[in-house]
Amino acid sequence: MTDSTPTPLPASVADLTLEEKASLTSGASFWYTKPVDRAGIPPIMVTDGPHGLRKQREGGDHLGLGDSVPATCFPPAVGLGSSWDTELVTRVGEALGVETAIENVGVLLGPGINIKRSPLCGRNFEYLSEDPLVSGVLGAALVRGIQSKGVGTSLKHFAANNQENDRMRSSSDVDERPLREIYLRGFQRVVEDAQPWTVMCSYNRINGVYASEDPWLLTQVLREEWGFEGLVVSDWGAVNERVPSIAAGMDLEMPSSGGRTDAEIVAAVKDGSLDEGVVDVAAGRVLDLVRKTQATAGTIAGPLDVDAHHALAREAAGRAIVLLKNEGGILPLDRTASVAVIGAFAENPRYQGAGSSMISPTRLDKALDEIAAYAGAENTAYAQGFTISPRDTADAAELRAAAVELAAAQDVAVVFLGLPAAAESEGYDREHIDLPSEQLTLLDAVLEVNPRTVVVLSNGSVVALPFADRVPAIVEGWLLGQAGGGATADVLFGEVNPSGKLTETIPLRLADTPAYLSFGALDGHVRYGEGLFVGYRWYDARELEVAYPFGHGLSYTTFAYGDATASVGADGDVEVRVTITNTGAVAGREVVQVYTSLPSSDVQRPVRELKAFASVALEAGESREVVMAVRRQDLAYWNVRAQAWTVEGGDYVVDVAASSRDLRARATVSVEGDAQTTPLSRESSLAEVIAHPVAGPIVQQALAQMGGGLLDGASSVMPEGVDMMQMMGSFPIGRVGMIAGDGFPPEAIDQLLAAANAPQH
Ligand code: BGC
User: Fold this and answer.
1) CATH code at 16-296
2) In terms of CB atoms within 10 Å, which of 191, 363, 449, 553 comes out highest?
3) 590 by DSSP, 3-state: which?
4) What are the pLDDT digits (tens) for 637-690?
5) For residues 580 and 657, is the Cβ–Cβ distance under 8 A?
6) Which fold has domain 311-542?
7) Atom 8 (ligand 1) nearest CA
8) Helices 437-449 and 396-409, interaxial angle, to 10°?
9) Protein residue whose Cα sits closest to atom 2 of ligand 1
10) Rounded Cα distance, 321 and 162, in Å
11) In degrees rounded to 5, what are phi and psi of residue 99?
């Protein structure tokens, strides 16, 4: 974007030469698209993202990781997602949009909405959930918020980029149903609901094909099925072969190829191996993006209201915190009590993850100072407890001894534990989910001298909590952005009543996790062997105990759930109603969740799946009816045979819940199924043909005419109770002639199939 009055852009790519068009389809530098000066096309700037603006200062390094201008560091996705609050997330998006616009950046590279397939993924802190509905709904809220300020987003990393090790070449080998129902569903929702200006294709291959070269992914699914209207940009360096990638629908290659790949495109058009129309389309999309950014350039001027955005960052961080446990009401803390603040994170907050998303914050709260602001400096004592920096050579035993002495002398100990920064990062995965042993030893020692101990965690993805039964209170603080210190104190002292809930299960052991045996690339392939059973879908199906279930989170108040009702509306969506009452003494917020299941389903399904949710603020004693919509489309499963989404008819069980394992009210709703969508073929089984409304009666009649039923003879020699139709039901109709002989000649089968597949009136 430029601040001067924009030159009118050419009406179409028709005004450009082939070379100019090709040049538009790759970057000029790390963060800029190419200009075409002759035609008055300016460059635009795109930059990370996602939980703040990372605009590198001019002359930054070539890895794109250098110093960036100060920007508000909002909670990374792991924190923001735990709010489950679309209104809050939209407001954070708007603030991100404002900061992006003030800095004249055209596109903020986010949000990232990949599914947390395993807690080991090094980049889980940048993603929202293990569940596609949470990822999709909150991802759409972020996109809407950011784009409402006239700047673009880049929905990333499309798709099935669920690990960091070997991410630039490994193949995510995923069956169709989990691919559609788990890994693509969130992307589909964001595209359909919020039309991000750009989608960023990921580094990895999917079932052997690079995402950047996959016409099925980038054109058929994204555009033809979902109606995406924007531009596809590559992740930085994700283009393997440029000519096949542009043909697949990969419009803009980033960063710069130094013109090498533009020349490849020109050469391919000249030798006839690439249609020039393909280049026109990609260049046209780049032009559209330039036009969109120009249309709003300069409409939001600085300076940034640093205080207002810091306050929003604190509000968001307060909503992100998940109170996992609070025995005996140890929290909120009494403001007159003396507090031992223990753990290096209280002074050196870990507030974002490592890699391309690192923001230079406008300021940074420390929990230690913020606790002192509530409890008074004279009542607040601090001990580092352990080291978190490899450069810190302090003696572990001495640090521990000092912390224990401090804990023994105060009314309550607040122990800040967490993962060191290098434990989780873009670019590599974790090997375990344990907190450093030094920290666990310290906690045990503190507990011995002061049982009134609260643990506050700083981690970008889940850690094992072997102490969960021994400490009275655990506050999951994730990574909370620049105002996390203040927000943590707000929650500890009850200024903010915690309302965050887990968007990912906390398992008891790494060995219990769904991808335990298949995480990480083996010979370049990652086999998604757990199929649909990701996150809570796995633990529920396996009936495994977990430390804290998906959807869990406590409050300083309590909520009662009334009876639930569920009914199908005129639009086919299921409307779920329930009255929630705040039965405690303080105002609070409850995240109400709706899970559905279909006991009569003919296909494999998780025990229950999240289909709607709402965040509801209630004063003490207040009751409110909450109305939530389950979209009909969200009841559908991906029907592999029909290559289509199918809603099965039947009585759906609707559970209204406080977590995936705390079901509070149940209703049943009868949903009409989609009309038969699977065309019959010679491969269709006898059972499928018999179940078909047109072909079924014809086949039944034919069988009956074949002398009292073809199968009766065989049936007479089988043990009693053996159903011959069940036994022979999987016989392909195309081969049925082998057993039915003349009764079913090939022509008769072809006629039957034609009749079955003819359009029904
Ligand atoms: C990351 C993207 C990021 C890009 C630009 C890549 O390595 O995967 O998320 O937007 O770099 O920094």
Assistant:
1) 3.20.20.300
2) 191
3) strand
4) 999 988 999 999 999 999 999 999 999 999 999 999 998 667 888 999 988 888
5) no
6) Rossmann fold (3.40.50)
7) 235
8) 30
9) 235
10) 24
11) -65, -35
